[in-house]
Design a protein that fits this description.
Elements: H1 14-36, H2 42-49, H3 57-81, H4 83-103, H5 107-135, H6 141-169, H7 174-177, H8 179-193, H9 207-230, H10 234-257, H11 271-301, H12 306-312, H13 314-334, H14 336-353, H15 363-389, H16 393-430, H17 440-456, H18 458-461
């Protein structure tokens, strides 16, 4: 996604610039909030829709996978159609998707509505950030982008608690309905205040490469989740896995032969980027699974109310914010390789430690456990992100950052997919319709498996050079989660 000079327009007023920053910030907040707010509401949704609480992962997967699919096309659309038109369309689609989610009467309707919501959500941050870069002078980029990023960091922190509170005082429908008035105001403000810019020299979109990536991501997700949720037979799962692998390989061959692919394979010649990207993909599978698993464990197995389950996630968020300052000092002292290898194993062990959760576990111990997980998990994100982006330079920053964002959303989707598949499989050994403390062994086995997957990804970071320069550069705050 390039950042060319905007097409000639009148210079926006200070008021327009201020309103635009708030628009982009609120859009990013809505996007990140809806990625986590549903987690504590899943059991209530299941009861309302007549589904099993342990088979609701598609609600989360549909949103995150759609966002991953739409990221490559969002920048091109903004270049071609203009930032104001695309940002307006993103808010409108997101708002309509939210209204459809609240109106859903079946799980299939809810999943389709979440896809619509994800289409709009995927374009809110990239297009909004592009509008900021094209409108603000270079010396104001950093404070402007920092202002935009702060609400995006707050969204995931309050999402689980807000979702649980809304479910408890009203119903799960309100976690989507709260987006509607905000979206209406956002559409009006965008139409009035958002400066419009486009790139008249927008290159032709790499449609074949895009379709290959989409086929690869979607078939991989269906292969992992289809057996447990859709009842796909083993032979069909194998065919989907082969198709996914073939699509990714075909994209690699296509990218070599195409002058301007969506993502150039030259990015993988940068050692820190390639290791960081692959490490992010596999380590984040566990990190993407935990926000789905923990609220389910607390409500389905341990008897917490939705609001109580949401409150229990606050120590995770608080410890995560505190540890971000610590990880930079550790990297400067010990280097990326040692910090990432050690911390990845610690994250995996902490995930596996939830296998010891029981109804009789003291509250203080559970809070400490959640805080420790939040701390090491946040350190993992910060270290992986700085490693991945630190050596991109200006030439590959745009393409590399977009690919990195895609991998983040894909791994979040895969995390919930893997967790849902494992949980459903282990619950099947016990009995699909068991509830309460009887289902705890299924959660225990799932946490152990997720922990092993995460700890095993430390081998990827072990491939880093031991003498890698120990400089932890500050990245764009919006990319730290």
């Amino acid at each position: 996604m390039s950042v060319p000079s905007p097409s000639p327009t009148s210079k926006p007023s200070a008021r327009s610039l201020s309103v635009m920053l708030w628009l982009v910030a609120i859009g990013f907040f809505m996007q990140t909030l809806d990625a986590t707010i549903v987690n504590t509401a899943l059991p209530a949704m299941a009861a309302s829709l007549g589904e099993r609480a342990l088979a609701m992962q598609s609600v989360v997967i549909a949103y995150s996978l759609t966002m991953a699919v739409m990221i490559p096309v969002s920048g091109w659309l903004a270049d071609k159609l203009g930032t104001r038109r695309v940002f307006f369309g993103a808010i409108l689609v997101f708002t309509i998707g939210s209204l459809l989610c609240a109106s859903a009467h079946t799980l299939d309707e809810l999943v389709l509505s979440r896809i619509a919501q994800g289409v709009g959500g995927a374009m809110l941050l990239p297009v909004g950030r592009l509008a900021v870069l094209r409108t603000f002078p270079a010396e104001r980029y950093l404070p402007a982008l920092s202002f935009v990023a702060i609400p995006g960091l707050i969204g995931p922190l309050i999402g689980p608690t807000l979702g649980g509170w809304l479910v408890q005082i009203a119903s799960w429908h309100w976690i989507f309905l709260i987006n509607v008035p905000v979206g209406i105001v956002g559409c009006v403000a965008t139409f009035i205040f958002m400066p419009d810019s486009r790139n008249p020299d927008t290159p032709r979109f790499d449609l074949p490469g895009y379709l290959l990536l989409v086929i690869g991501m979607v078939t991989l997700t269906f292969a992992l989740d289809g057996r447990t949720e859709l009842g796909i037979q083993h032979a069909a799962v194998l065919v989907l896995l082969i198709l996914s692998l073939a699509a990714f390989v075909a994209y690699g061959l296509h990218a070599v032969r195409t002058p301007r692919p969506i993502f150039s394979l030259d990015l993988f010649k940068i050692d820190t980027f390639s290791v960081g990207l692959l490490g992010n993909l596999f380590a984040r599978i566990g990190s993407g699974a935990m926000p789905y698993l923990i609220p389910l464990l607390l409500q389905v197995a341990l008897g917490y109310t939705p609001f109580q389950a949401g409150l229990m996630m606050l120590p995770t968020a608080a410890a995560g914010m505190f540890s971000k300052r610590l990880v930079t000092r550790l990297i400067l002292r010990y280097g990326y390789r040692r910090v990432l290898v050690t911390n990845t194993v610690l994250v995996g062990m902490t995930m596996a430690s939830f296998a010891f959760s029981t109804p009789g576990e003291p509250l203080w111990l559970r809070l400490v456990q959640l805080a420790i997980f939040g701390g090491v998990n946040s350190m993992q994100f910060t270290a992986m992100n700085t490693l991945t982006l630190k050596d991109l330079g200006t030439g590959g920053a745009s393409s590399g950052n977009s690919l990195f964002s895609l991998v983040q959303m894909l791994s979040m989707s895969l995390g919930v997919t893997v967790a849902g598949a494992l949980l459903t499989t282990f619950a099947g050994f016990i009995g699909h319709h068991v509830t309460g403390s009887a289902v705890i062994p299924a959660f225990h086995a799932t946490f152990v498996c997720v922990g092993i997957i995460t700890a095993a990804s430390s081998w990827i970071f072990a491939q880093l050079a031991s003498d890698l320069h120990r400089t932890a550069k500050r990245t764009d705050p919006s990319e730290r989660t």
